[in-house]
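Hi there,

I know you've been waiting on this one. I reran it after we fixed the sequence typo, so this is the corrected version. Both the input and the resulting structure follow.
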Amino acid sequence: MKHLTGFLALFLFASLTLYAADLSDLNYRTVGGQVTIIDCDEAATGGLVIPDTIEGNPVTSIGESAFFNCRSLAGITIPDSVSLV
């Protein structure tokens, strides 16, 4: 039984897809040539790197509660173009 449990654990680990969240997991708004991240797909998993620009416009802010329901994200990297208030 011990070997079977170890094998099952190894199989499950090997079958997990390593996924990093990306731009397709974000909802954003562009106003005056500046991008604000307003929401994220609740199913997003892994690490998320917010790009410096989206469609040629700088990402300058993140909306309040933008990641509130994104509980499966492992981490978020915020670009220097985002100013903290």
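Quick highlight: Residues 19-77 form one domain.

Best,
R. S.
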